[in-house]
Design brief:
The protein has 510 residues and is mainly alpha-helical. The protein is built from 20 helices and no strands. Its main location: membrane.
Length: 510
């Protein structure tokens, strides 16, 4: 065991901090893309003649490909090499973005979005696992994951600002073209400076049944939630997708427990610390995705903010996330156990969300929305940083890619669930409010417009109450399941089988 530990603690890679710049740049590009297209969608829909019924596919095509192929992408990164997967993912993402920006019709746009998702599924787990294998010192690792966590948490809000600027002052096509310089700089830089540690690849044969079952199961799950948002939870196809997903993913677990070289070794999923990260982070993302949606509509529709002003209105959340990740999470991670950052972090975010349940039509931005965003950002930034680091906790370096893919998968599925679930709750509350005030709404004039606005805000507040409960659940799960000590403490990591105990040595070395 000591020999293994020693062999896994080589001299630090002198180019690791340069590599972090390019890895962070690629992560920013992927996270930006999740929100930047939302701002541009109305303009793109008009230009390309996409129907109202099909416009959701501009978002859904990306989500399905990204969420469905993440595990496959993580396994390819383990087998093929993370540097290779990272660079190919960047080049492919850039080409798909160019295709989207040059789209001359609905089919070309949807195809480009699906390709972006597919290459993003190769790129995202490769980026996170590169950090896991390149940063071996506990304090440096904490700083690196602090930067990565801040980008992962705040990049979506940056996308709203950038998307607003590009759409308002240039053209919606630039929300796609802007990815190209990001990708080229990151790919060239990564190719020149990244030196992947030797012996960290997993050259086992590819588990084809696992690839098919996991991909189709995750696609069915993500599509089920996205369809529920537009067609309802009792829609026949929605229900069919959920049933199919349950059957396919159950079959996937069965196959993984039997095959010699599984796509997702169950030891990656079932170790309590990693499992706690995947579950708590997935739940937290449900609440965050819903919040972005509601606040965007509240600020633009109810308060009358422009797209650019709306983007800037999210800056306090970005500032909070950066401070939480780099000043709180990174500084404390080597001093306190991760659960004491994640649990309180999610609870502070829940407190910020609780403030937003008081939203009204005339609510003051400085008095209510700004402090709520600061609390949300600080809490999520503090929690995201150790969560990203723990995604590869105790895992064999050869499995780092698929472990990284799992944390991305939990976020992607959480985002799909959050958008559908919270939007449905908000729509139901809005409908109920309008029903109760039907006579006033029928009167017309300014009074009717005020009732419409109040109904929307009532819906947002109702959904945000659910988001508060979800964040509290995330906090409880993190405090309960995650029991590892601070990185580098040298104590036992967690209970597990003999095989699992062997896998814990790299974490102590890291």
């Amino acid at each position: 065991m000591s020999k293994t530990a020693a062999s896994l603690a080589p001299a630090a890679d002198p180019s690791r901090w340069k590599a972090l710049v390019f890895i962070a740049l690629a992560q920013l590009m992927v996270v930006l893309d999740a929100t930047i297209v939302n701002i541009a969608l109305p303009s793109a829909q008009t230009d390309l003649g996409i129907s109202d019924g099909n416009r959701q596919w501009v978002i859904t095509a990306y989500a399905l490909a990204f969420g469905g192929l993440l595990l496959f992408g993580g396994r390819i990164a383990d087998k093929w090499g993370r540097k290779n997967a990272f660079v190919v993912g960047l080049v492919g993402f850039a080409l798909a973005s160019a295709l989207g920006g040059a789209a001359n019709g609905e089919a070309m746009m949807l195809g480009a979005r699906a390709l972006q998702g597919a290459f993003g599924a190769l790129l995202a787990p490769a980026a996170l696992s590169l950090l896991a294998v390149m940063f071996t010192d506990a304090k440096e690792r904490a700083k690196a994951f602090g930067i990565y966590g801040a980008i992962a948490g705040g990049g979506g809000a940056v996308g709203l600002i950038l998307g607003g600027f590009l759409t308002e002052y240039l053209n919606w096509r630039w929300t796609f073209f802007v990815n190209i310089p990001f990708a080229i700089v990151a790919a060239v830089g990564a190719w020149m400076v990244i030196r992947e540690p030797a012996g960290s690849r997993n050259r086992a044969p590819l588990d084809i049944p696992g690839v098919i079952l996991s991909t189709t199961g995750l696609v069915a799950l993500v599509y089920g939630f996205t369809r529920a948002e537009s067609a309802g939870w009792s829609d026949a196809l929605t229900v069919t997708m959920f049933v199919a997903s349950a059957l396919l993913l159950s079959a996937f677990v069965l196959v993984e427990s039997q095959v010699k070289s599984p796509l997702l070794p169950l030891r990656v999923l079932l170790e309590r610390n990693r499992g706690g990260v995947y579950l708590s982070l997935g739940l937290a993302v449900i609440s965050m995705f819903g919040l972005f949606l509601f606040l965007t509509y509240y600020l633009q529709v109810v308060k009358g903010f422009s797209p650019v002003k709306t983007g800037f209105a999210f800056l306090p959340m970005i500032a909070g996330m950066i401070a939480g990740s780099t000043q709180i999470g990174a500084r404390l991670m080597t001093r306190v156990p991760p659960r004491l950052l994640m649990g309180p972090g999610f609870m502070v975010a829940g407190l910020g969300m609780l403030l937003l349940t008081q939203l009204e039509v005339g609510s003051s931005y400085p008095a209510l929305i700004l402090p709520a965003q600061l609390l949300l950002g600080l809490g999520m930034g503090t929690a995201f940083m150790p969560a990203m680091s723990l995604a590869t906790h105790g895992v064999n370096p050869a499995d780092a890619g698929v472990a990284s893919a799992m944390v991305n998968t939990s976020q992607q599925v959480g985002g799909a669930i959050g958008t559908a679930l919270l939007n449905t709750i908000a729509a139901s509350a809005t409908t109920a409010y309008l029903t109760d005030h039907a006579a006033e709404a029928a009167a017309g004039g300014p009074a009717a417009q005020l009732i419409q606005a109040q109904a929307m805000v009532e819906g947002y507040a109702s959904a945000i109450w659910w988001a508060v409960g979800i964040l509290v659940a995330s906090s409880v799960i993190a405090l309960t399941l995650i029991n590892t000590g601070r990185p580098g403490a040298g104590g036992p990591v967690a209970s597990g089988s003999g095989e699992e105990a062997e896998l814990k040595v790299p974490v102590i070395a890291h």
